[in-house]
Design goal:
Blueprint (H helix, E strand, L loop, with lengths): L4 H17 L7 E5 L5 E5 L1 H25 L6 H30 L6 H19 L15
Antiparallel strand pairs: 1-2
């Protein structure tokens, strides 16, 4: 649990930002953008502000709990630091996406055609470097011999 503390802190910060932004959000918040960078799906302000922090909290709890129930839990002593770093990075990525979504709704000058691919590319680079270091387990990585 302690190793997922950064993810919980990011989740609380994202929730605080979302709650702060909620009264200022328009009646419809763009939550999906097409390849052309134009929004093509909208949600209510409460849904847009609270869904992602809720998912982040759930993901943080799952990442913290899975090593305790994994039948191959002995392998976490070899790759635990990588596993928890990956969990923190994924939750941090989700927090950054939430800030982009709400920032766009608040009128910040953001170009989603540039911001989201850069964030996603950075996430894939980090995941591509970390996943090969994960030992066999039941929940993450490649499980074939």
């Amino acid at each position: 649990m302690r190793k997922m503390l950064p993810a919980f802190v990011v989740t609380l910060a994202t929730l605080a930002f979302s709650v702060w932004a909620l009264p200022q959000l328009p009646a419809q918040v763009a939550t999906h953008w097409g390849v052309d960078g134009q929004p093509n799906d909208w949600s209510s302000p409460a849904f847009a502000a609270l869904l992602m922090p809720g998912i982040m909290l759930f993901m943080s709890a799952i990442f913290a709990a899975l090593p305790n129930i994994d039948p191959l839990k002995k392998n976490y002593q070899f790759h635990g630091s990588v596993y928890f770093l990956l969990g923190n990075v994924i939750v941090g990525f989700m927090g950054a996406v939430q800030v982009l979504i709400l920032g766009s709704a608040l009128g910040w000058p953001l170009d989603m055609r540039k911001a989201l691919p850069i964030l996603l590319g950075a996430l894939f680079v980090v995941m591509g470097n970390l996943i090969p270091r994960i030992r066999p387990n039941w929940f993450m990585g490649i499980r074939t011999p």
